[in-house]
Amino acid sequence: MISYRSTRGGSRGRTFEDVLLAGLAEDGGLFVPESWPVIDLQTLAGLDYPQTVARVLAPFAEGCFDEAELLEIAREAYAGFAHAAIAPLRQIEHDSWLLELFHGPTLAFKDFALQMLGRMFERVLERRGRSMTIVGATSGDTGSAAIHACAGRRNMRICILHPQGRVSEVQRRQMTTVVEDNVENIAIRGTFDDCQNLLKAMFADRPFREDMRLAAVNSINWARIAAQAAYYFYAGVRLRSEAVFSVPTGNFGDVYAGYIAMKAGLPVRRLVVATNRNDILARFFETGVYATGEVHPTMSPSMDIQVASNFERLLFEMAGHDGVRIEAMMAGFRETGSIEIGGMERSGLAGLFVARRVDEDETARTIRAVMDRHGYLMDPHTAVGFAAGQSLAERGYPLVTLATAHPAKFPQAVRLATGVTAELPDHMKGLFEREERCIVLDNDLSTIMSHIRSWSH
Ligand SMILES: *Cc1c(COP(=O)(O)O)cnc(C)c1O
């Protein structure tokens, strides 16, 4: 059975269930498996998407869920997706494919993991006779996917903070129109960073955390990342070839899921780390220096990030699984805002990860060119991945770009680039007529905490 440890070495021998509920390790590190399973590709041939998820997750979740239970969860989780294949692979050019991950209820790839996570939480809480309060901060996509995954589920409440006026209307409505007793939306008079700081402060307040049984749903949760490894397998098995995957990246979660797939037996030629103008990761893969900069707003806002929270998992691999060293590196990072990794340590992964930054002009040009050439409307995040992938593809290997959002989720950017208005899919047609429920609060910790307290009782 696979057990889990913290990247910082403080906790070891944890079960999948511990890791699922805890999110972050007690020492502030991220959970990683102590060993890797080997998934036999032959056993994946001919499986549909839920079956693939169950088979891929089973070795990681052993002791908590078996494959049959995972299949039950996955069947439910993906039942509401608007495409029969759930994650269709669409050929766009010779040897170039798009893996469409936006057919879920909130039109971005985050539905893939969160629809599973909400149901896994529900089952574990039921078994333990416990309840919990999920709190999260969002700049758009995570919040809506998490709300849709947890609304109406037993033993949990979910409260999402978003910066007032700083998420798109589609993103806001996808959160605020979910009217369920266990869902609370708070718009903060402040920025996304303010929301994140409020969240950190709530988790750091031990009495509040324990009293409210706080839980997190951000992308550092191991179960979330592991669930995403499934679509890499699904694509690889369908193409029957080692492939280059190009992944539009922010928190390094989705592309790290590709690394998990490779560690668990999927032949992967390359993982392209595609960033927008917020290029901390692209700079790292070029220079070995991981240094934060200022966050610039772009047309691919879900990647406007200058500290990639999952990156610690890759550092852990590069540092030879030395938790003490990671602890020291992260402490240094908090002080100076930078980490440097030598060429020797990077060389082990240098052939696998390649990175490229795509600026705003190139993103818009890519959306337009793909529309002109193929009549296909791409969202700006996908366009970043597609542009980076095209320039880092390798002859003889299929290029698979992860299409992470539906173009209708970012209609303005798409319209500016092409003049075409992206239509919302049928299941979302009523979005602009539905009633919204949301409370606006000041960026003040005690106000927020007392609000959450009274809402939850
Ligand atoms: C969250 C998100 C990303 C970035 O994913 P990470 O796992 O943070 O790297 C890319 N595209 C879209 C549409 C997203 O919502």
Mean of all residue-level pLDDT scores: 94
CATH topology of the domain at 89-105 and 222-418: Rossmann fold
The CATH class of the domain at 89-105 and 222-418, by name, is Alpha Beta
Ligand kinds: pyridoxal-5'-phosphate
Q: What is the percent of helical residues?
A: 40-55%
What is the count of β-strands? Answer: 15
Question: Strand share of the residues?
Answer: 15-25%
Which stretches are low in confidence, meaning pLDDT under 50 for 5 or more residues running?
none
What is the strand arrangement across the widest sheet? 3-4-14-9-10-13
Distance between the termini: 39 Å
The rounded Rg comes to 21 Å
- What is the 3D form? globular
- How many alpha or pi helices? 18
* Structural classification: alpha/beta
Q: What CATH architecture of the domain at 89-105 and 222-418 would you give?
A: 3-Layer(aba) Sandwich
Major beta sheet summary? 6 strands, mixed
Characterise this structure.
The chain has a domain at 89-105 and 222-418: Rossmann fold. The chain is 44% helix and 16% strand. It is built from 18 helices and 15 strands. The chain has helices at 16-22, 49-61, 67-77, 110-128, 141-150, 169-176, 192-204, 206-212, 222-239, 253-263, 280-287, 311-318, 323-336, 343-350, 360-374, 380-392, 411-418, 445-456, and strands at 4-6, 31-33, 89-93, 96-100, 132-137, 156-163, 183-189, 214-215, 243-248, 268-275, 289-291, 338-340, 353-357, 399-403, 439-442. The strands form 4 sheets. It has a 6-stranded mixed sheet. A 5-stranded parallel sheet has the order 8-5-6-7-15, with helices on both faces. It has a two-stranded antiparallel sheet with strand order 1-2. Helix 2 (49-61) packs across helix 9, helix 4 (110-128) crosses helix 5 and helix 5 packs parallel to helix 6 (169-176). The model has no long low-confidence stretch (mean pLDDT 94). Bound molecules: pyridoxal-5'-phosphate (PLP).
